[in-house]
Design goal:
The complex is a heterotrimer. By secondary structure, chain A is mainly alpha-helical. Chain A has helices at 2-37, 46-53, 55-89, 91-106, 109-120, 125-132, 145-168, 173-181, 186-197, 199-214, 218-223, 231-240, 245-269. Chain C has 10 helices and 20 strands. In chain C, strands 6-7-8-3-9-10 form a 6-stranded mixed β-sheet, sandwiched between helices. Chain C has a 5-stranded antiparallel β-sheet with strand order 13-12-11-14-20. A 5-stranded antiparallel β-sheet of chain C has the order 15-19-16-17-18. Classes of the chains: A mainly alpha, B mainly alpha, C alpha+beta.
Chain lengths: 277, 262, 372
């Protein structure tokens, strides 16, 4: 059938540009990273053995995991009551809160990172307040693990709120009412009905935030402690300062592998197409 | 309930507060990051609008963003039609390919582009940044356009053909005009994605093609240049305007209809 | 010339040719549609539809009625079989060259065009001069009572108004056939009835050959000249509404349309025997040995005594009553069979659950359907 053949031809005509473009400008550079991680100039695994045998790298990897997990949990604990109240109260309250969250969401990471630089800075309001409260001398806030973690929570909370909200708003409010009418206390109704139904939002939000945190470059580099790098910052340093492309590639492959593992787990249990809803 | 509300309000304050800090900073007379500012003036605004070192990155970012938007739409729109409307072998593999740039951490791609574009001799050029940003913008643009395509009622096309429109005319008279808003939103997201992208730009844009995020990054890291607060305020103002204007528009329309009814 | 005149002319021409009226105008021959090469959505349908006829495709969802319609409109390619319009094969003709008007389930009005632009669209596609487009589109809107709404966009109109625009749009270019795909499904009950009348009026005025797809049996019964009952990809019966109701040819048709009681009837020797009742005094059809005996609940009445000749009289235990206001449905059992009987309310006022009463129907009211 000619029409069928024409349809096939049209199909590939539509797909070819983007597939070709991504092959040349995405897959090739990505495979180069894999390639350089095992070449110097001949085949070698030394970049990986260096990573595995050196305690410093393990510390970076572990620290990155720790920070990502901590930021995720903190963002969830803060975002959940906010999203919950937005859904519960609705009206002008919800509009205002969602407005604030979207505003933060769309404001550049760099602008928000700069804001934290000011707030936590040596001449900033937080240290001034501490000194007024008698904590003299106020501790150094900027360029610590505390400052980068706090800023990352702030940067990623909007993602968490929006992920939670999009699931929560679809929960029929009559379900908790039904639970109440059947004798559940407000807390029981929340714990046994609302909380489990909002679980997909929790999983989505946490996955998104955790993954973004794992590969976060800008904020930890600008606000974090130079002694306690995260893995993306380490890669940047290997490129920029040491020009060690082999090591940078190996570190990148490890970061990529970790990220893909998280995605694969998510895909296995939830399905990747649901992440960006 | 009351405790939850208090908690929610505190979190809202935590989200909003830091955004507001940058505004007074931009009017500050201090030449370092001091808050609250010792005095106010407009001096840094004047410096910003007269400073090539800041204006060039702004224009670079806009140009690169527009080019990225155009290229991304040209690639993604046709592909979305194929992906949404056809079932074929290899469809899920292509779907994965289209989403990959969102999955791979940007710092990994920054390294990849750094070496690859050096070989191609397009590192530190606007072209290189556009090509990289286009790859990174494909997923978000695809998600939006595919969603609007899925929501498209195919009976509209059937109706057009039934009424005598050839397939090509059906596309131009019905399909395209109805989907245009979705396409534009997809394009807008591609632009914003490029305009905000920092990591890849930091490594491959160089001085010549420096984008605004790269300039801001350098400014915070190396120079502690107070003009950064002006740029931040302006960017925040753009977001504020964009987020509030639909709301204001709705209020105006509502007020007008009430006025007419009265 | 208005839309109306054009159709009347076309109609009078066929009238003058006399014989044409009884001949098939739209012929569907052995139509088969399969999406995956294995399962068939439409399994060999043949229908002859006469010029000016109002035909309903009635059936549950997934019965193949919409697929058949889509093949007539040209949106689905038949796997095999043919569709002839006025004697000409149209299966290979692309949708936009068929000159068949269609009203879609959710109207499919173009959201970026006004009502007038929507109605003018088919004329524009036919390269009609602008002035004529404006005039004819306005006329068509006037025909459906929306002359004043031409400047509105679909989203600014109610469901009923959108429906009328869709109708005007499907008729303005003088199509040979009008297809309606569950056009009233999204409207509430009052509006539905109003639109049914409107569609019938337009059909009467224009005399256009019409196919109406619906899953609502009462809609099909009240509107159609003939009904094609679809089930699982085949047409079970194609006949006028009353025939469909009184003389269904398959058990499916009997049960899908109206309320029904089925009794197992078998041929024994030369007579017929009904399960639980015994020998029947009706002429046995020539075919087969087994039948479904269909008795409509409203054919069953209270037995007040007298000559039982020609009647089936049974003792009936009432297990439930459903009041409809004008009538009462009795649900119960008689002679080991579950039966439903519908009585006028005035006759049933003294009946209660648990009562045992005498019921009867005339043996001739039992319709026999051969078991396939």
């Amino acid at each position: 059938m000619t029409t069928l053949r024409n349809e096939r031809a049209l199909l590939w005509l539509l797909l070819l540009p983007v597939v070709g473009f991504l092959a040349v400008f995405f897959l090739v550079p990505l495979s180069q990273v894999l390639y350089f991680s095992v070449m110097d100039p001949g085949f070698t695994l030394k970049h990986y053995t260096a990573f595995i045998t050196d305690g410093f790298y393990w510390k970076v990897l572990f620290g990155t995991f720790q920070t990502a997990a901590f930021v995720t949990v903190l963002a969830l604990l803060m975002a959940y009551p906010l999203a919950y109240m937005v859904v519960r109260l609705g009206g002008a309250f919800a509009t205002t809160i969602l407005l604030i969250v979207t505003m933060s969401f769309w404001t550049s990471f760099l602008v928000r990172t700069f804001a934290w630089m000011v707030i936590l800075g040596n001449n900033g309001p937080l240290r001034a307040a501490m000194e007024m409260l008698g904590i003299v001398p106020a501790p150094q806030l900027l360029f610590t693990r505390f400052s980068s973690t706090l800023a990352m929570v702030h940067l990623l909370i909007p993602f968490m709120v929006l992920a939670l909200y999009s699931v929560m708003k679809k929960i029929d409010p009559n379900l908790t009412r039904a639970a109440r009418s059947l004798g559940a206390s407000p807390f029981d109704a929340f714990r046994r009905i609302f909380l489990p139904l909002s679980a997909p939002g929790i999983v989505n939000g946490c996955t998104l935030v955790f993954i973004m945190c794992l590969g976060f470059y800008v904020t930890p580099v600008l606000l974090g402690s130079p002694r306690e790098q995260m893995i993306a910052g380490l890669i940047g340093q290997q490129i920029e300062e040491f020009l060690e492309f082999g090591e940078a590639s190996a570190t990148s492959v490890i970061l990529l592998a970790v990220t893909l593992t998280v995605f694969a787990l998510y895909n296995r249990f939830v399905g990747l197409d649901k992440l960006w809803g | 309930m009351r405790i939850t509300l208090a908690l929610a309000l505190l979190v809202a304050l935590f989200v909003l507060g830091p955004l507001l800090v940058v505004v007074p900073m931009s009017f500050s007379t201090a030449n370092s990051f001091e808050f609250p500012p010792p005095g106010y003036w407009l001096g840094y605004y004047r410096s910003f609008f007269g400073d090539e070192r800041w204006l060039t990155p702004v224009f670079n970012s806009i140009g690169i963003g527009l080019a990225t938007m155009l290229l991304t739409m040209l690639l993604v729109i046709p592909a979305s039609f194929a992906m949404v409307r056809q079932r074929f072998m290899g469809r899920s593999a292509i779907n994965l390919l289209l989403m990959m740039p969102m999955i791979v951490p940007n710092i990994v791609m920054a390294l990849g582009y750094y070496t690859y574009f050096s070989q191609l001799k397009i590192i530190h050029s606007p072209l290189g940044v556009v090509l990289a940003h286009t790859c990174l913008s494909v997923p978000v643009c695809y998600l939006i356009i595919a969603a609007s395509l899925k929501g498209f009622d195919r009976n509209l096309e059937r109706a057009a053909m039934n009424l005598g429109a050839s397939p090509l005319r059906t596309f131009w008279e019905v399909t395209f005009p109805v989907l245009r808003p979705g396409f534009l939103v997809g394009g807008l997201f591609a632009f914003i994605h490029s305009f905000d992208e920092a990591v890849v730009a930091i490594f491959i844009s160089g001085q010549a093609a420096s984008t605004l995020p790269r300039k801001m990054f350098d400014s915070i890291r190396i120079e502690a240049d107070p003009i950064i607060s002006v740029v931040s305020t302006l960017l925040f103002a753009v977001v504020l305007l964009a987020v509030l204007s639909p709301l204001a528009w709705r209020a105006i329309v509502k007020a007008r209809s009430q006025f007419r009814a009265a | 010339m208005t839309v109306f005149d054009r159709h009347m002319n076309a109609l009078s021409q066929t009238h003058s040719q006399g014989v044409v009226m009884t001949q098939a105008y739209l012929e569907i021959r052995d139509l088969v549609k399969s999406y995956d090469g294995k399962q068939q959505a439409v399994r060999g349908i043949s229908l002859d539809i006469r010029k000016g006829e109002f035909v309903s495709f009635l059936g549950p969802s997934g019965s193949g009625k919409t697929t058949t319609l889509m093949m007539v409109a040209g949106f689905e390619m038949p796997t095999s079989g043919s569709i002839l319009l006025g004697g000409r094969e149209i299966a290979p003709v692309p949708a936009h060259k068929r000159n068949i008007g269609m009203v879609f389930q959710n109207y499919a009005l173009f959201p970026h065009m006004t009502a007038l632009e929507n109605v003018g669209f088919p004329l524009r596609m036919r390269k009609t001069p602008a002035a004529e487009i404006a005039r004819r589109a306005a006329e068509a809107l006037d025909m459906v009572g929306l002359a004043a709404f031409g400047g509105r966009h679909p989203r600014e109109m109610s469901g009923g108004q959108q429906q009328r625009v869709a109708l005007a749009r499907a008729l303005v270019f003088g199509p040979d056939v009008l297809l309606l795909d569950e056009p009233l499904g999204a409207l509430d009950k009052n509006l539905r009835e109003q639109m049914q009348v409107e569609i019938k009026r337009i059909h009467r005025e224009l005399g256009i050959t019409t196919i109406y797809v619906t899953h609502d049996q009462s809609e099909a019964m009240t509107m159609s000249d003939r009904i094609a009952v679809f089930s699982q990809g085949v047409v079970e019966q194609f006949a006028p509404p009353l025939d469909i109701y009184q003389r269904p040819t398959t058990r499916f048709v009997g049960s899908f349309i109206g309320d029904s009681n089925f009794l197992d009837v078998t041929r024994q020797n030369d007579g017929l025997v009904a399960q639980g009742i015994g020998a029947l005094n009706i002429a046995a059809p020539s075919q087969a040995g087994k039948f479904h005996g269909l008795v409509r609940p409203e054919a069953i009445g209270l037995w007040t005594g007298g000559d039982e000749q020609g009647h089936c009289v049974l003792s009936f235990l009432i297990e439930g009553l459903v009041h409809y206001g004008d009538s009462v449905l009795l649900i119960g059992s008689a002679a080991g069979l579950n039966l439903r009987a519908r009585l006028p309310s005035v006759q049933a006022s003294h009946l209660h659950e648990g009562d045992t009463i005498r019921i009867a129907w005339r043996e001739n009211d039992m319709h026999l359907i051969p078991v396939q």
